[in-house]
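Help wanted!
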Amino acid sequence: MIKTVIFSGMAAVALTAPAAIPLAINTDDVTLMLNVDDDGMLRQSYFGKRMADESYGPLDRGVEAFTTHGYTDQFEPALHINHADYNSSSVLKYVDHKVEEVKPGVTVTTINLADPVYNDAVSLVYTAYAPENVIACHSVITNNSKKDIELEKYASSMLSFYAPEYYLTEFSGDWGKEARMSSQPLRFGKKVIDTKLGARANAYVSPFFILSLDEPATETSGDVVLGTLAWTGNFRFNFEVDNQGLLRVISGINPYFSAYRLKKGESFVTPDFVFTYSKEGIGQASRNFHDWARNHKVKDGNGDRMTLLNNWEVTGTDFNDEKLIAMMHDAKELGVDMFLLDDGWFGNKYPRDNDLQGLGDWDIMEKKLPNGFAPIIEEGKKLGVKFGLWIEPEMVNPKSELYEKHPDWAVTIPNRDIYTKRHQLVLDLSNPEVQDYVFSIVDKLMTDWPDIAYFKWDCNSELTNVYSHYLGKDQENLYVDYVRGLYNVLDRIRDKYPDLPMMMCASGGGRCDFQGLEYFTEFWTSDDTDPVERIFIQYGMGQFMPSKVLCAHVARWNDDVKIKFRTNVAMMGKLGYDYNIHHLDEKELAYSKQAVKNYEKLKPAILDGDLYRLVSPYEGTHAVNQFMSKDGKLGAVFTFDIYPRWGENYYNVKFQGLDPSARYDIYEIDRFDAGDFKYGDYTGEYLMEVGLPILTGNRLHSRVYEIRKQ
Ligand code: GLA
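Answered by r_m:
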């Protein structure tokens, strides 16, 4: 049956509407089933395990796939448009769809919907990553009317679930305590996780959630959905259980103070909401995300990562040529790939000797570095150590030449006192002139010093004083246009310097989103380098993020912890040092050099392999992680006894992900002041069913086991 629908102001559009058009978004193991019903409405009828019977029937009509404000639905809408005639209702009817395989295993399904009265068009774009079992969804909203419209709510995705119980895990925290996991049941009503920080996604809560259906999922069991928004700004996940026990999850940019004005003919592309589903618990869902991140999202996701020595926790801003050259030698001594020079190298009129001034003036400070970076870079070349540099190009201290010249480039409210965070202001990236300036900082540094091999890009303030001197009456565009401006700059940097690795940082783990990671090879997981806290922080971030992107440094925090424990925690991420190696005694230094070598050897398992979280730090007093290389030949088990209780029972730790019939040699490696030790050899079945007694009652004690398949 062909229906012809005449859209006012548009050419006639043929609307194919048989009884129901099934639209299956499939990965290898997961299906999101949508249907166009004979009323032209798009409905979600199924989300879960991909089944052999692809009809998924008999299904009832399902629930609307992208609800709108003001017509029939009475819950939180995915879309709310205010039209010029004050009508703020929308109705979306199916127009057509297309399915394209964009690369092997990646299929994009675009479903075009439109409002028959106002012509507003909404495309729902689903990208299915088959082997990784990950789906990304975003919407594109186009103003086809004759006048401007205002987007009041513009979600990326809406998903519905129908289960007797729902359990939500969120990742809340603050500076120095990022991604703390806590769970709660969802009952009738709303639960919202959102942020209003503007220049980053995370400070008080990370842009992640875990949703368990029926009962709380474990690492190895349960129906579970992991979701995140790929957007370096305000996000919102809206969970609403309705009167019938149906859960709607609406994800997207936080609409808070962001009613976006869309001119006639313009389109608004929302960021991707990325999600995965597993019937085998959270561990598998995390591995899906890790694979997807490395294969499809993170900059140089399948490439190697450099180990490094950073001077921040060693010198702070108190350094000169001599000290930095000495640290180049320390880097060489340790055996790491790079020396990273942190904050404090710039500013002349207002020298950046502390965080009160100089930010924005990116000329090298002559009193500290009279010959620029040349002596340090040259020394590095001789030693075979690369040179990396800290920048914070989106920010300005009011006490700076930049601010004196361009006060209107900073985000400040004209008729109020300036409120600063860490004595600094955010530059207004909605302004193209400011974008050019921020790009020029990196471009000039790379032109003057082409040997810079790495940037640590910081962002130590959220958006405060929320007013743009550039946007005029469109102030509510600021939150969105800031992030878009940032992406413009990052696009230009990536185009010109495609192979330049960069660390994303925002007072620690404030930036930890996947869209940022399209431009950055890794991120600074937290300023908190206390190894005990890091076990928890890396555990939280690692639910979504592969260890390859989690910068983890051996540093000074927590005096009770010995060097081996510190190092073992950092070895589970992207290893670096923020440590004065002259504070290590002879044995500690010898151990550290060996640990760097061990890390190199274990990289195929840690950075590119599969993570199995065998013992959670949240369960008590220990933590154990197992990493297996993709070919299954090499593994590493990191075991931590944190603060064991007296008289605890130490149960065996059961391994995962092994071939039951293969035999494996287990070595304890990375021992302090001792060589490798063969622990035994076992079948995979034994290791997985019986496990090994590798927990102890020693406080702050760690061990590393290497698994070698025979
Ligand atoms: C932030 C970063 C630190 C360090 C300082 C420098 O706090 O997270 O690692 O670079 O800035 O000011």
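OP: Thanks! One thing I noticed: The chain has eleven helices and 39 strands.
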